[in-house]
Amino acid sequence: MESAKRKPYKARGLRNNITKQEQKLWNLLRNRQFHGLKFVRQYPIGDYIVDFACRKEKIVIEIDGGQHNEPANIKYDNNRTSYLKSRGYNVIRFWNNDIDNNLEGVYIKLKEFIENSINH
Question: What angle separates helix 103-118 from helix 20-29, to the nearest 10 degrees?
Fold first, then answer.
């Protein structure tokens, strides 16, 4: 595991190398455009750096590529999600393919997820 001191630097590097799918989703989330919620990118939570987080409402959004279908990565992602949930975060995941081909559907699913997370 990396030291906690290195996390901000790694997160900064990830923010500087945003994927096209992250950029598309960030365009929906940035500047409180999505339900007035403030999201941050590449945010460290414990030993993990999440793609997007709304700290106030404790919501994490992850974007997954095809490598996340491999057994070792599925296990890692499940452990990661369990850890984030243990810290009080609600986690939603989207596939790169969905962001590329069905951004409207992603928007609708995210809207429903956030409404349910905030109201519960």
Answer: 50
